[in-house]
Amino acid sequence: MEAFLISTGIVALAEMGDKTQLLSLILAARFRKPWPIVLGILVATLVNHALAGAVGSWVTTFLGPDVLRWVLGLSFIAMAIWMLIPDKLDDSDTPSSTGSLGVFGTTVVAFFLAEMGDKTQIATVALAAQYKAWFAVVAGTTLGMMLANAPVVWFGDKLVKKVPIRVVHTVSAAIFAALGVVALIGWGQ
């Protein structure tokens, strides 16, 4: 349960102001069809985070506990620093039309590609390696993504303007830094 709850909270916070959250806002504004967009985000996130969680679980099979502790600790600290750098969405990340894919297919493809190498994908890898609980981590990170992105699709601009993104990023960075320190000193090992 701990892996699920921590994964949910970390990813929900990390996603605030992230480029995939901005993409959710753009998709909602452009297509004005919330259900296919939210379902597309869910499918893209499940596939992306399932793969990322598998990588995190796989890493634990060939790294010794001491090396893994250092890799995880430094990864979480790097994520803390990365959280303090605001994301920007460039034109290549936003679809101009749905083409033959429709709103759902366009959302799946755009969201999956935008999530590649993103903070929340990297966090999923690290969390899966840390907790060795693939299902709980993937379920948690997916729920965190949905908690952060679905309201943006439905409430868009109004919601984003009320959230103090800088504060959310600072809190997220502090949580990642704390997880990094805990991993480095080996608490709970």
TrEMBL record:
Subcellular location as annotated: Membrane
Transmembrane feature ranges: 35-55, 67-85, 97-114, 134-155, 167-187
Main location group: membrane
Superkingdom in the source lineage: Bacteria
InterPro entries listed in its UniProt record: GDT1-like (IPR001727)
Sorted UniProt keywords: Membrane, Transmembrane, Transmembrane helix
Membrane topology according to the record: Multi-pass membrane protein
Name of a matching Pfam family: GDT1
Sequence similarity: Belongs to the GDT1 family.
Stated name of the protein: GDT1 family protein
Organism, scientific name: Ottowia flava
Species classification: Bacteria, Pseudomonadati, Pseudomonadota, Betaproteobacteria, Burkholderiales
